[in-house]
Amino acid sequence: MKKIAPKNTRKPVNPFLVLLVIALIGAFISLTFKPDLSFFQNKTQEISLTELIQKYNQDELKDIKIKGSEVTAEDFQGNKFKTFKEPFATVADLKLDNPAKKTKVEILDTSGEKMWEDIILGIGPVILLVFLFMFMFRRVGAGGEHGPFGFGKSKAKIYDPKMHKTKLSEVAGMEEAKEEVVEIIDFLKNPKKYQSMGAKIPKGVLLVGAPGTGKTLLARAIAGEAHVPFFTVSGSEFVEMFVGVGASRVRDLFKTAKRNAPAIIFIDEIDAIGKQRGSGSGGGHDEREQTLNQILTEMDGFEPGAAVIVLAATNRPDVLDKALLRPGRFDRRVHIDMPDMNAREKILNIHAQNKHLSQDVDLKKIASKTVGYSGAELENVMNEAAIAAVKNRKKSISQENLENAVEKISMGMARKSRKITDKELKIIAYHEVGHALAGHFTENCEPVHKISIISRGSALGVTWFLPEEDTYLNSEQKMFDEMVSLHGGRMAEKMIFGQTTTGASNDLERISKIARSMVMTYGMGGKDIGPVVFAEKSRGFAGLEFHEKEFSEATAEKIDQAVKNLVEKAEKEAERILKKHADLLEKIAQDLLEKETISREEFLAYFE
Ligand code: ADP
Ligand code: MG
Ligand code: ZN
Fold first, then answer.
1. Phi and psi for 209 in degrees, rounded to 5?
2. Measured in angstroms, how far is the CA atom of residue 347 from the centroid of ligand 1?
């Protein structure tokens, strides 16, 4: 893959700061550094005006030069004199106009000699400023080939189609998305075929999916398969410091693409510019609006049949401006889901292609352990496993390497070095077993996969529940059971130690979130609330954001009550379970303190 345009590696400086510094330096120079220009002139003798007139009258002077109020003279021996007159005194006033005298009297333009003094003191700093400005613009524009004022040019990178080799086969899973993409590629390859049928070709295609699901990868594959110039730019690159620059970049980008048609323009992370206008606060807001407007104008301005397709990717379609989603713009959406079991195995396979795997490796098993992993995370698993294999001086990657990599990535690096007191460790152990037991004795909670009190990342301990299969629907009962198991940790602390700790704050946060979404989004709030979706909108005005409820205060109170009821009901259930199985709590927690981790099999053995 070859990038034609140079890459900007330098960090842009804040131009206003630089400007201020330069202005200060300039002022400093011109105020303190006023050069004494007489230094450059020959030594002259200063005399009085009367003396000078005397010398004139005695015919001693060869010439007299009058410049403003300064009078200089030279006698026939080459001696120089200097004196001053009143500014408005004329030659006649001074009686220096006697035609009988040999002295040549010259009146010089006042501006004459002073000019270059002015240049140095006045214009010099300006020139300096201009140079520094150009220097800065070069940094801002950062496109070496664009010259100093290229900052309005598009920074889009062109991927040379011939050099570009990403193939659709390198993208695993997402079958529907690929189907759509094949159509787009076909259009770019044979636009005539579609046009002769009178078929309208989509102008814009929006790739929507969570981070790391392969949106950028898919876009590259489109470029690789379609064999057309591919201009890619990231939304955040548009949001620059000077107003209007983003818009002019868009203009430039579209112009270049049209010249190279058929072509693809890919705007990655378009949510950075495509945020709803009039919402949000802070700087760069006007700029974003102008850039967005320019995109809309350009997309509307495509002549019918222009074989330019605008691809855009986002993980936040909800924040995109509605105007972007109207027909004739990004009228097609391609949803890219998190990979399911099958796709995960394929993705693992793709990233295993250039690696040595041991005989024992079972990627299917790894796929089953990585529910909820994105493509990027799976790639990371492979990579971590390879690094571990190298570290252990192995010739190939083993299943163990892969399994450790999965754990490492999902829970952060195991940090045994962290010093935790015995008392804390004890609290953590009961807390985690509390989660596990409360979850185990509910009907719908996912099975416990592992309990550990080895701190990883920011979590002190972890109870890992793992679904047996991918699920797409969450039932009311399951969400409730999840709350019960989340309450288990805090409840165990309360029962054993008589108080709770800050360790449960994340649990509480998750519980409230689940309860709130049950009541407000899924219509699970009970009779009092009914199956109604309650939305909270935020709206911006003059840089301020307001939250606007689409329901009355009375309803808000009811919602709060329903949420509280749910949370408390789950807490009671957790308490009931843990009281009933207090002996197990004790036993497992003690074992956990000793072993540090309890596997699924070990955990299940307690119930036989
Ligand atoms: P996104 O743009 O959606 O955030 P990327 O396209 O940047 O995600 O994905 C990051 C990396 O993850 C890709 O370069 C690729 O190596 C890997 N990846 C993600 N999804 C897939 C997939 N479906 N098949 C193969 N590799 C994938
Ligand atoms: Mg991306
Ligand atoms: Zn917890």
1. 180, 160
2. 9
